[in-house]
Specification:
The chain is an all-alpha fold. The chain has helices at 9-20, 22-79, 82-93, 98-134, 141-166, 170-225, 236-254, 257-267, 273-308, 314-337, 339-346, 353-381, 385-393; strands spanning 401-405, 411-415. It has a two-stranded antiparallel sheet with strand order 1-2. It is globular and about 60 Å long. Mean pLDDT is 80; it is low at 393-423.
Length: 423
């Protein structure tokens, strides 16, 4: 007797319905492998983040937070939304027009190398000025330059992972995430414990280089498996994709990302500068956790919505809208009810009402983002990115204001989008 025969009758009927449905079967497989890889890898990363927060303390963790915020802000320009572009269009063309899918993969790699390289050189040159004049921390100039390396490799990884998701190669992505997670945990923890902030930043750079190598090998195998020839030739219709899809996505990020970074920079120039940034960054560990849980569904659903195209599926549309929100809401409720348990995990430096207030607002806001992700997948799959940009300008989809209040009266208004990268 196999495992399925031992399940309750209702569960067996559900499995049979999924197996009979081509879309349901593909979605179930994609979600399973996405969840399996993400759960292990990001679970290890979550534990590593907690330990790093304890090792570095509030101020050191705040410095790490502003470095990562700076990388994320410049990453909006470096990546040029090529990961999302690759996911959507490789899924759409891999069967009907494999040559065009190959051109999309080539364009994604070429543009991320060009834009990522340009932004990386800029950050390398201006890191000392940025650290001294904007972040009020001249000693962070060297770490910002290491962050430039992270920025470049992250952009390349985004394009590769996006293409793999377009192939629905979620088992491959899960395998890469698992291996990277197993390597990342000891590297990051050892670096932070023995070398402090410098060790943590170099640990992230090392892990991203390993990820790029594994993704590169995996993508070549998937292209060969699906008979998709990678090409760097750009046709007029490919330029149209960059105009109608990639550009509005980048512009939408530009409306929010720099503002978010500027508010973080404003925060670290206030009294108790990096201690307050440490409180915010520690709360964002759990914000990122909720978004990672939600992100387990993002790539499978986006790939399916793009591949199905104009064929209507009410069940798929319902699953797209509600599943992410429910998956994000489930872990958010116990977090909101038990902030003291979170403080115990982070250590004595994170005790007090300032952390509790910040943490509650961040988690509550995160649940709103999880619901929004389903709406954005619809816009992306339908090539309505310019319309999404317009709604972003009016603040309907892109951001939600949050005020973080500290005991001494210093405060900062900040706006968060779903980040392209989490750590």
């Amino acid at each position: 007797m196999n495992v399925k025969d031992r399940l309750p009758a209702s569960a067996q009927r559900l499995i049979q319905r999924i197996e009979k449905s081509p879309i349901g079967s593909r979605l179930a497989k994609g979600v399973f492998w996405s969840v399996a890889g993400t759960f292990i890898a990001q679970g290890l990363m979550f534990c590593a983040s907690i330990l790093v927060a304890r090792f570095l303390g509030k101020e050191g963790f705040g410095e790490l937070g502003i470095i990562w915020s700076t990388i994320a802000m410049f990453g909006l320009f470096a990546g040029f939304a090529m990961g999302l572009t690759a996911t959507k269009h490789v899924a759409e063309f891999r069967e009907k027009q494999p040559e065009r899918a190959g051109r999309i993969i080539g364009i994604s790699a070429m543009f991320t190398a060009a834009t990522g390289g340009l932004v990386t050189v800029g950050l390398l040159i201006f890191a000392p000025l940025l650290a001294e004049q904007t972040l009020n921390a001249p000693h962070l100039a060297g770490m910002l330059r290491v962050g430039a390396i992270i920025l470049f490799v992250t952009a390349l990884n985004g394009a590769q992972t996006g293409a793999l998701a377009g192939f629905e190669a979620f088992k491959t992505i899960a395998s890469v995430n698992l291996l990277v997670g197993l390597l990342e945990f000891p590297i990051l923890i050892t670096g932070a414990y023995f070398f402090g902030l410098e060790g943590a930043v170099w640990g992230m750079a090392t892990n991203l280089c390993i990820t790029w190598t594994l993704n590169h090998i995996a993508l070549r195998k998937e292209c060969k498996k699906h008979n998709v020839p990678v090409s760097f030739e750009i046709t007029r219709e490919d330029w149209a994709i960059l105009w109608s899809f990639s550009l509005p996505t980048v512009l939408g990020g530009m409306l929010v990302g720099p503002v978010r970074w500027a508010c973080n920079a404003f925060l670290v120039n206030q009294p108790e500068r990096y201690s307050h940034m440490g409180i915010l960054n520690s709360a964002l560990i759990f914000h990122n956790l909720l978004l990672v849980v939600n992100g387990m569904l993002n790539a499978p659903l986006l790939s399916l919505l793009s591949n199905v195209g104009n064929a209507k599926s009410n069940k798929l549309e319902t699953a797209n809208i509600l599943s992410s929100w429910l998956l994000g809401l489930s872990p958010a409720m116990p977090l909101l009810c038990l902030p003291e348990a979170v403080q115990v995990l982070l250590g004595p430096e994170y005790q007090g009402q300032a952390f509790k207030t910040t943490f509650a607002i961040v988690v509550f806001y995160s649940t709103i983002l999880t619901f929004r992700s389903g709406l954005l997948r619809v816009l992306i799959s339908k090539n309505l990115l310019w319309w999404a940009l317009e709604t972003t300008c009016y603040g309907r989809l892109s951001c939600f204001p949050v005020r973080t209040i500290f005991p001494n009266g210093a405060s900062s208004d900040w706006r968060r989008r779903s980040p392209s990268h989490t750590w």
